[in-house]
Amino acid sequence: MKRHQNLLLLIAVVLLAALPLWLVERPLGPDGQPAEIFGGADSQAQALITRIAPDYQPWFQPLLEPASGEIASLLFALQAALGAGFIGYYLGCARTREKLRREQRRGEAAARREDEDQEGPAC
């Protein structure tokens, strides 16, 4: 029973995540053509700059232009994954370092107590 309940909950979560992406209608842009649903701020800023200053020339060109939006999304996801991996690695190292310091302090305190017990009471 519990196994079927977990499976149903998993299916419900996947549907809740995927259905809105399928059911959303594609909006029309200012030119009447279908616009990007999940367009980024870069393209919106570029369109606004073109509208404000049509003769604007960019200061530089990208060194590498992705072949498609999917590749750009892949590169962005890869960058995010590498950043998250680096942060997770750093936090794990910092936590382990602190844990080892605490254990070392406990060991030193236990050794001091053991030395005091062997010396006997101070008079």
TrEMBL record:
Any one Gene Ontology MF annotation carried by this entry is: cobalt ion transmembrane transporter activity
Sorted alphabetically, the Gene Ontology cellular component annotations on this record are:
plasma membrane
Name the UniProt key words of this record, in alphabetical order: Cell inner membrane, Cell membrane, Cobalamin biosynthesis, Cobalt, Cobalt transport, Ion transport, Membrane, Transmembrane, Transmembrane helix, Transport
Q: Which residues cross the membrane?
A: 7-24, 71-92
Entries under Pfam families matching the protein: CbiN
**GO BP annotation list:** cobalamin biosynthetic process
Where does the record place it? Answer: Cell inner membrane
- Region annotated Disordered, chain positions: 102-123
Q: What is its pathway? A: Cofactor biosynthesis; adenosylcobalamin biosynthesis
Q: How does it sit in the membrane?
A: Multi-pass membrane protein
Compositional bias of kind Basic and acidic residues: 102-115
HAMAP family, sorted: CbiN
According to its UniProt entry, the function of this protein is described as:
Part of the energy-coupling factor (ECF) transporter complex CbiMNOQ involved in cobalt import.
Give the multimer and partner information: Forms an energy-coupling factor (ECF) transporter complex composed of an ATP-binding protein (A component, CbiO), a transmembrane protein (T component, CbiQ) and 2 possible substrate-capture proteins (S components, CbiM and CbiN) of unknown stoichimetry.
Instruction: Give the family, as the similarity comment puts it.
Output: Belongs to the CbiN family.
Which protein are we looking at?
A: Cobalt transport protein CbiN
Cite the source lineage.
Bacteria, Pseudomonadati, Pseudomonadota, Betaproteobacteria, Rhodocyclales
